[in-house]
Amino acid sequence: MNQVVEPSTFDPTVVDPVSQTFSQRHRRALLLCASLSTLLGLGVFASYWWNLGRYLEETDDAYVRADWVAVSPRVAGYVAQVLVEDNQAVKAGDLLVCIDGRDFTERRNSAQAQLQQAQAAANAQQATLQTLDARMSEQQQRIAQAQAALHSSEAESRRAQLDYVRYRDLVAQHVATAQRLEAASADRARAQSTVVAGRAQVARQQAQLQVLQALRRQAQARTLEQQARIDEAQANLALARNALKDTEIRAPFDGIVGQRKVRRQQYVIAGLPLLAVVPVEQAYVIANYKETQLQHMLPGQSVDIAVDSFTGQHWHGQVESIAPGSGAVFALLPPDNATGNFTKVVQRFAVKIRLAPEGDKAPRILPGMSVIATVDTRSGARQEHIHGG
């Protein structure tokens, strides 16, 4: 037997009181949790900013630098060998380029021959000087001998004079004969002439000594001249040896070879850049901070460095120094704000950051890479606070 079922009537506007109470409680709990989370996040952020964030000075105007050098020859010539390749690692003192040294070798040999010639001439002149010294010593002996003979003749002259006077008195007294007086007179004349000859001989020997002394002074002057020629030859030999040594171009320090322009059989001149040696291991960062960021920045503060080439990796460093002037001061054409209209522009100062060693596993930072440098200036802020800043 079929029964008639009446359709149920449902009014959507009618809300179940139990469901409404649960929804309100759930909504309030979610709102409370969201409020607490927001307050907690704000508190954490405020704490981070107050303790650290306000002291961090960051800039993306920063790049890796290195004090690389362009290697140039000191002498001109044809390149005989190029011993390095592009991007090759080298050590200090490694041979990079060889210039043909045949001409420089011959110049060195010529300088050595000139030095030997000058030394031989100086030795000969020294022998001449020694000979003159010996002759002067002999001449002094001759002078002494002549003076002794003169003294003897003078003594004989005095004796002959006394004999003459004695016989003259005896003849006047008719004790001696006139013939004996004549003999005494002749002896006196001979003695006097002997004295004159002795004096002339002494003067002659002394004049000869003066000639030898003049010759010795000339020889001594020539010796000094020969010594000057030796010094000049030694200097020329040193220059020739240096030029020969400079045909071997070596690495000034450890680094990587770059910009290799030199090729074998190329003619190079002094000062022409051949290649560059970049000391990658001594790289540092130059960060250009705004002048408003330098208030608490001091050398020695720690720096966090993020390199654009290596996402997610960070390096550490320290502030080494701050430039003594802004980039505009050292520009080729510095601005002159005293002319025309004036617009204030915040200036930037270069800050040098020394990288801390990161070990062999860390990627190598190359000069020219862009980085983001963040300096922790808390030490500078505390120091200013201690001094009442």
Shape: elongated
What percent of residues adopt helix (DSSP H or I)? 40-55%
Please provide the count of β strands. Answer: 14
Which strands sit side by side, in order, in the main sheet?
1-10-13-12-11-14
Give unreliable regions as ranges. Answer: 1-10
Structural class: alpha+beta
Which CATH architecture of the domain at 103-244 would you pick?
Orthogonal Bundle
CATH superfamily of the domain at 103-244: Helix Hairpins
Descriptive report:
By secondary structure, the protein is an alpha+beta fold. Strands 1-10-13-12-11-14 form a six-stranded antiparallel barrel. A four-stranded antiparallel beta sheet has the order 2-9-7-4, with no helix packed on it. Strands 6-5-3-8 form a four-stranded antiparallel beta sheet, with no helix packed on it. α2 (102-172) runs antiparallel to α3. Among the domains are: 69-101 and 247-276, OB fold (Dihydrolipoamide Acetyltransferase, E2P) (Beta Barrel), CATH 2.40.50.100; 103-244, Helix Hairpins (Orthogonal Bundle). The chain starts with 16 loop residues before the first helix and ends with a helix. It is elongated, with a radius of gyration of 54 Å. β11 (302-307) and β12 (314-322) form a beta hairpin. The longest helix has 71 residues, at 102-172. It has four helices and 14 strands.
